[in-house]
Amino acid sequence: MMARRVLLTFGLANCGLALFDLTLAAVSPASAESDNHARSMKFEDCLGVIHAAADHLGIVPVDVADTALLRIVRFPVSDGSVVVICSRADEKIVVTKTDDRCGAEVEC
Prior knowledge:
Blueprint: H1 2-9, H2 20-25, E1 34-40, H3 43-57, E2 62-66, E3 70-77, E4 80-87, E5 92-98
Antiparallel strand pairs: 1-5, 2-3, 3-4, 4-5
């Protein structure tokens, strides 16, 4: 499934998310409607994850929010969406896989 492969790419060591490897590998295609994974990360590093994922996947993320303190993007994938949230204030990255499809359940 495409969304599962997208989630697994966030486990790439060069993106700084090696700790996600085990949890993301455990996400099954028949999982609940959404899956959240969060960890501490500097804001600039989180922005780098978004950029690296976009380059690696060849998917342009849809900007949901882009401020000095928060960046939220949605990667539309064949079986839903992957949302990446970067928070400067919390120094956190949150990656969420949802079944919401761009253009159907959410605006993209």
